[in-house]
Every structure is written in C-alpha cells, then in structure tokens.
Amino acid sequence: MAVLYILLGLVVLLFALGYFFFRLVVYPNRWSVEAAYQNEVEKGKLNPADWEALEKEEVRIRSPHGYDLYALYLPLPGAQKTVIITHGITYNLYGSVKYLWMFRKRGFNVLLWDLRHHGRSGGPDATFGLMEPADLRAVTDFAEQRLGGKGLIGSHGESMGAAIALIHAAQDARIGFVIADCCYSSMRDILAYRLKVDYHLPPFPMLDLADFWFYLRYRTHFADVSPLKACARLETPVLITHGAADSFTPARMSEALYAAKTRGLRRLYLSPGADHAEAFWKNQEEYDRVLGEFLAEVEAAA
C-alpha cells in the first residue's frame, strides 16, 4: 500500500510540474511598454526624434476573441500598399520599429500592433500561433479598409510573430507576401529545444504533460501549432530570414520551413554572425538588399 501511495504521489507531482511548465509557456513574463521603448532607444534601434516626427494614428481593433488589440498606423501619403509588422513573444510593437524604415522608403504604409497578452493589447494568454492568427486577420481587415479594398498587403513577423504571420497567411488569401524572421518550425519543436537548453530535460515526460494541460485548455496539441505545416500549404511569396548564429531558435528550423515551402516564390537568407532577432541589425545593408529584391519580385509578379 505504501508503494501505491508513493506512485500516486509521483504521478500527482509530475502532472503538477507539467502544469507549472504549461503556465510558464502561456503566461510569459512580458516587457512593459515603457521598458521596451527605452530598451530600443538605448540600443540605438529607435531614434526618438525620428519616431516622434512620424505621423501616427493610435488604433483599437476588436479581436474576434473578445478583447481590444492596440495598433499604430503610420500612413505614407499616396501609398497603395501596407505591411503589417508583428513582434515576438514577451515584447511589444516597439521591437518592430527598426524594420519600418525599409518599408517606408519602398512606398509602404506601416501597421505595428501588440499581440494579445502583450503591450497595450488585451487577451488572457500567449498561444504561439494558435489564437493569434485570428487577431492578425482582424488587423488585416483594418489595413484593407484603409486601402479601400485594393492594394498590396504584406506581413512581416519576428520570432513568434513570424510563426503567427505564416500561419495566418495560410488562412488568409489577402496577404500578398510574408517575411518570416527567426521563426520556429512548430510550437512543440521550440518548446522541446528550450526545455533541453534551459532545463537540460528531454521532451518526455515534462513536455507531454504540459501538452496535456494545453489540450485541456485549447483542445489542440503543441505539435498542431505549426508554421511548418502552414508553409507546406502556402503559395504566398515568402522570404525566410534567420540569424546564422541564433542560440535561441536554431537556424535549422527556418531551413526546414524553406524546404517545406514548395509552391510559389520562396527565398532564404541566413544572416552571418547574427543571434536571435539580430538578422537585420547585424547585417543591415544586406538584409535591406535581400528584402528589396524579394519585394521587387513580388510586385513584378502581381
């Protein structure tokens, strides 16, 4: 009987640890808006004078999930194309500012937004691309309305934002192109990798137990939240970029996305010496050139 109680206690402990890991995943520690802004300024990625000089419109967009999404719309007079830029997990839209100038000089309106459970947006949790693509569809609705129902709408995402952009594009034919920067191949893949690196643990049993709780909450599994599966369906033009020295999300995941994207225009750029979310910042001229050549191909084919 004592052995039975010990075994039962171990089972309860394991499920409790799985729940703990599940909560770490869906309730990440997030940067405040003020801290993210200051961090970008201190790193030289956001020039306050240049930023303040831009015309900006604060927008609240209603999520189909029942909360408000916060966005900044930066119009360019006469522009008939818009890019939506999506930040990564724990951060907010200030992490997207560094990218906007590449699009502005190529004639794009820019729409920055805070993911659910991040920045100034509502939402109860972060789901790595399960619930967020519906939010991005609502943001796309706004972009389409501002273009009067015509014109080019593209999507740029970084890290989790890239995963969301790819999954959304596979569901929404209005997206004319995607630029996916430092994306993971699936939610399960990145969690298994981080579990190994951060905690020196194999996927079983911790990840599987966390997946059990994820399934109870959302009725789907980690493996089903998959940019890789989205790429296999995508005909939308996609530029996949990644830091070649990424220590958080290995570059092989973007290489797998590129290999899976067998239909339509695809391009891959591995930024030399760049760590996570540094592909642009470490090699700005080359990144800008690759992006410009990709967009020229997209517009030529339109």
CATH class: Alpha Beta
**Name of the CATH architecture:** 3-Layer(aba) Sandwich
Structure class = alpha/beta
CATH superfamily: Alpha/Beta hydrolase fold, catalytic domain
Rg estimate, integer Å: 20 Å
The strand count comes to 8
CATH topology: Rossmann fold
> Order of strands across the widest beta sheet?
1-2-4-3-5-6-7-8
- Reading the helices and strands in chain order gives HHHEEEHEHEHEHHHEHEHH
The total of helices stands at: 12
Form type: globular
Q: Low-confidence segments, ≥5 residues, pLDDT <50?
A: none
User: What's the number of structural domains?
Assistant: 1
Q: Major sheet: size, sense and barrel closure?
A: 8 strands, mixed
Proportion of strand residues: 15-25%
Question: Alpha-carbon distance between the termini?
Answer: 72 Å
What percentage of residues falls in helices of 4 or more residues? 40-55%
- Mean pLDDT score, rounded? 96
Topology:
Layout: H1 2-26, H2 33-42, H3 48-53, E1 57-62, E2 68-74, E3 81-86, H4 97-104, E4 109-113, H5 132-146, E5 152-158, H6 160-169, E6 175-181, H7 187-199, H8 206-218, H9 227-233, E7 238-243, H10 251-260, E8 266-271, H11 279-282, H12 284-301
Parallel strand pairs: 3-4, 3-5, 5-6, 6-7, 7-8
Antiparallel strand pairs: 1-2, 2-4
Please name the defining characteristics of this protein.
Rossmann fold; 302 residues
If you had to describe this structure to a student in words, what would you say it looks like?
- With 302 residues, the protein is α/β, with parallel strands linked by helices.
- The chain is 46% helix and 17% strand.
- It contains 12 helices and 8 strands.
- It has helices spanning 2-26, 33-42, 48-53, 97-104, 132-146, 160-169, 187-199, 206-218, 227-233, 251-260, 279-282, 284-301; strands at residues 57-62, 68-74, 81-86, 109-113, 152-158, 175-181, 238-243, 266-271.
- An 8-stranded mixed beta sheet has the order 1-2-4-3-5-6-7-8, with helices on both faces.
- Strand 5, helix 6 and strand 6 (175-181) form a beta-alpha-beta unit.
- Helix 1 (2-26) crosses helix 8 and helix 9 (227-233) runs parallel beside helix 10 (251-260).
- The chain starts with a helix and ends with a helix.
